[in-house]
Design a protein that fits this description.
This protein has nine helices and 16 strands. It is of the alpha+beta class. The longest helix has 21 residues.
Length: 351
């Protein structure tokens, strides 16, 4: 299915260091995904999108993000290559699409924006046609009129916005975004239960206001793994060898750079940590990275033996999971931090 990427840094980065130059950049993942098995849709070629915030405030330009989308395959779009070489930003969302809901159009390409907020999704809402009416009936008129496309992802964004006190205000506390994300997930799972939907939904959502980022790795199942999601953090991210070979380095405890991705951008095993299934991850304005377990009927404590090994068949069938032959070399790293997160602790990485 789709692939997504989040970058947040203390200093702006040239977009090409994320989109085009790494040998396993998100654009290369569009046709050479290593953690994606889906014989029905072997490539992510149904369009792409990239959104970013200005590196320096400009009253004339405003504080809203800029978004560039296209229905052409990401690897074959010269405008994307040209723009990536000339734009720098401290906060970037990128997404390559393999459509499951909604046709091939720019209005269906991630990410989307509403005021200062930007949103994208990797996954799928099971039997969304049964939930769309409930979502539309819940929305106030201004949010009901907001979606321009017909994807489950954009309608869920509208649902998320409805849980904010004022989705058009100038700034948000990261806790408000976190709470709205949790309400979005809990509402969708409750409505699915009400409608008798038994197939799990894959809800890897990302939202930002330009200062904070909230992302989820979630599946409405106690036994299956969610769609893949990883993070990497450090003080510098650079090309250390010709051919697009990048790595993340950490010279101290600072988290100057944080990446969240469906699939690692590098092949350096120490660079990436796997985010535990049914976990919320938050990047605060001060670059603190926090993980919160999503405790609901689908939460399984790490101390429960049944929760130590979730099945991967569902995610693989949908094209979102790691194939059986992929080793865990991409998810090694700060084992202590990962272990604390698995015990249900709120973990501040780098603390």
């Amino acid at each position: 299915m789709c692939r997504l990427l989040v970058f947040k840094g203390k200093e702006p980065i040239q977009l090409s260091h994320l989109l085009t130059k790494p040998c396993h950049s998100i654009i290369n993942q569009a046709f050479d995904s290593r953690l994606r098995l889906d014989s029905r849709r072997p490539i992510n070629g149904d369009g792409f999108g990239v959104g970013w915030y200005d590196a320096f405030p400009d009253p004339e330009l405003g504080a809203e993000p800029c978004i560039f989308t296209s229905v052409t395959p990401a690897w074959n779009n010269q405008n994307l290559t040209r723009l990536a070489a000339k734009i720098k930003s401290p906060l970037v969302f990128a997404h390559v699409r393999a459509s499951t809901a909604g046709g091939l159009s720019e209005t269906n390409c991630h990410p989307w924006k509403y005021g200062k907020l930007m949103w994208m999704h990797n996954g799928g809402i099971a039997e969304f046609d049964k939930l769309k009416r409930l979502i539309s009936e819940h929305l106030p008129e201004q949010l009901f009129l907001f979606p321009e496309g017909n994807t489950d992802s954009e309608w869920v964004f509208a649902l998320f916005l409805s849980f904010l006190t004022d989705p058009l205000k100038a700034s948000f506390d990261w806790r408000e975004l976190k709470d709205a994300m949790l309400k979005t997930i809990s509402t969708l799972t409750a409505w699915a239960k009400e409608k008798g939907i038994t197939e799990p939904s894959l809800m890897n959502f990302c939202v930002t206001d330009g200062s904070s980022v909230v992302a989820s790795r979630y599946i409405s199942s106690r036994t299956e793994e969610a769609a893949s999601l990883y993070f990497s953090s450090g003080t510098s991210f650079y090309e250390y060898a010709p051919g697009g070979h990048y790595k993340m380095t950490k010279s101290d405890k600072r988290e100057d750079i944080i990446l969240i991705a469906s699939e690692p951008l590098t092949f350096e095993k120490a660079d990436w940590l796997e985010i535990r299934t049914n976990t919320l991850i938050t990047i605060t304005p001060h670059q603190n990275l926090l993980q919160f377990p999503i405790i609901d009927e689908f939460y399984v404590s790490p101390s429960d033996p049944s929760g130590r090994v979730r099945g991967q068949e569902f995610a693989r069938e949908k094209g979102y999971g790691a194939p059986a032959f992929v080793s865990k070399e991409w998810v090694l790293g700060d084992g202590a931090a990962k272990g604390r997160a698995e015990q249900g602790e709120v973990v501040e990485v780098g603390a």
